[in-house]
Amino acid sequence: MGTPASGRKRTPVKDRFSAEDEALSNIAREAEARLAAKRAARAEARDIRMRELERQQKELDEKSDKQYAENYTRPSSRNSASATTPLSGNSSRRGSGDTSSLIDPDTSLSELRDIYDLKDQIQDVEGRYMQGLKELKESLSEVEEKYKKAMVSNAQLDNEKNNLIYQVDTLKDVIEEQEEQMAEFYRENEEKSKELERQKHMCSVLQHKMEELKEGLRQRDELIE
């Protein structure tokens, strides 16, 4: 049985797998780079939010300390002033009312509520972002898995295709050999047919000579009698 013609070239499977592996590696590197960029952006945003919260908390603490200091330093100065200079009851009550007006707990509580609301909003945004990132990673993993399966399936189909091409080439060689054998058989048959015709002709000539000899013998026998 013949072998495939040397002129037919097939693409090595190893090179094709190397190209597919390189493509998968590039996709993985690009995905890692995007994730790293997102992590860096998220970390930078978190740092900015934390610095803003620290600044607001610092301002709130400074304001509270200032109010606390004013609350506890002004009465002592007022008492010392009342010890040296007699004041009326109305002025004392007015001074007490002025001191209490320096403390505004509603404002502090409102700022604290705003800070906690901001923290809750940040945590909610981060939670949604992390959930979206998780879903994106899962989707990317599914796509990569499907891509790998598709690459493996394509490689298998390509191998089957190459095997079928090889089988077709082999069958073509077999057919060519059989055609050559049939042509040889036809040539031999033609030669043998010609030889047979020659043999028949020789046989006919010999038979005719034999008939002539028989006739000569018969005539000789008649003359002898």
TrEMBL record:
Residues 53-68 have a biased composition (Basic and acidic residues). Keywords: Coiled coil, Wnt signaling pathway. GO terms for biological process: regulation of DNA-templated transcription; Wnt signaling pathway. The keyword Coiled coil applies. Residues 133-202 form a coiled coil. InterPro entries: LRRFIP1/2. Residues 1-22, 53-109 are annotated as: Disordered. Pfam families: LRRFIP. Residues 73-109 have a biased composition (Polar residues). Belongs to the LRRFIP family. This is Leucine-rich repeat flightless-interacting protein 2. It comes from Homo sapiens.
